[in-house]
Write a structure and sequence with these properties.
Length: 107
Amino acid sequence: MPGLLRGIVRTAAVAGTATAVHGRVQRRQDAKFAQRDADTAATRNQAYEEQMAPPPAPAPAPAAPAAPAASATEDRLAQLKSLGELKQSGVLTDAEFEAQKAKILAG
């Protein structure tokens, strides 16, 4: 009987240890899988939110650049040249020429 009792105690100890180890491993795996599932769900939710978000408003078109000052200067020079040609041809008097020239230079 003592041998039989020793065998039963040994079997109970091994089974108890195995059950405790199995429980610890099971809890650790459950925690790991729960964390992985939570990360996957968070990634999926973030992707869904990005997909459902309205598209960003298009950026406003850049304003057309103002006419460069060189162009305005060239335009004034062209007007003054044509005014000078009109004066030389006799179409404009000196007073009319000076008045038109003042308007061009002021504008």
